[in-house]
Design a protein that fits this description.
This protein is an alpha+beta fold. It has one helix at 2-17; strands spanning 30-32, 35-38, 47-51, 58-63, 69-75, 82-84, 92-97, 101-105. It contains one helix and eight strands.
Length: 106
């Protein structure tokens, strides 16, 4: 009888007090159209950009917090992954064109 009580108590304590590791969710790509965007969502990470609309080019201009141009890219080919440098605090992306682009953390 004591063993049965001990096993029940032991099983309850294992399920109550032991932390099970949780899987991290996969990063979700975010789609952007023409406009000016503050990239604080990706601060400190490298990001990849991919044009998702065929026959609709898009130009991406990355500007740092000091107003200096970091990157100037023209996306013409759909589904081509392009790696953009690390996004820092205060970086701004300017998107010009009719297409849509998807950014996701690397």
């Amino acid at each position: 009888m004591k063993i049965k009580k001990f096993l029940i108590f032991f099983l309850i304590s294992i399920f109550t007090f032991v932390e099970t590791p949780q899987a991290q969710p996969l990063p979700i790509a975010t789609t952007y159209t023409q406009g000016i965007y503050n990239m604080t969502l990706y601060t400190g990470n490298y990001i990849t950009g991919k044009l998702i609309t065929p026959n609709k080019p898009l130009t991406v201009i990355a500007i740092d917090s000091n107003g200096n141009q970091k990157t100037f890219l023209k996306f013409d080919i759909p589904n081509e992954n392009v790696k953009l440098g690390p996004v820092q605090e205060g970086d701004i992306l300017v998107l010009v064109g009719t297409g849509e682009i998807s950014f996701s953390p690397l």
